[in-house]
Specification:
It is a single chain. By secondary structure, the protein is an alpha+beta fold. The protein contains 2 helices and 5 strands. It folds into 2 domains: about 35 residues, no CATH class; about 100 residues, no CATH class. About 5% of the residues are buried. The longest helix is centred in the middle third of the chain and has 33 residues. The chain has a 5-stranded antiparallel sheet with strand order 4-3-2-1-5, with no helix packed on it.
Amino acid sequence: MADSVFVGYLAQLGTPVQGGGGEVAPGGPVPGGAGQQPPPAGSWSFPIIVFGVMILMFLMMALSGRKQKKQRDQMLASLAKNDRVQTTGGIIGTIVEVKDREVTIKSDDARFKIARSAVAHVLRSHAGGQDKPPVEVPPGR
């Protein structure tokens, strides 16, 4: 029974049922290549789509990183005296002095000189006089 099912399946596919003589099951292609079907047209569509999606994801990540870097650079450039800031170490204080590469902050009775890049968030800008939500910046940037 299993052999007849297998032979019937091969006949549907158009493969030779018997090993010799080049005989073809009924309904199969004619020997010699005439009437054979070409491979499916969509054989390259899947790899092209996958490659396109990968390029799109790479571009989105690159543009997102640039945007965050630009926001952080703008925040660091706009630091001014009397701004309330939080450092990457978690210290919250008020800026007393701003230099080219370092900032002096005052927290309670202590003063700290820190690198300008160690400022994580501006909690309150003196220029606006209002509290503003901290800008989320990924660590290490």
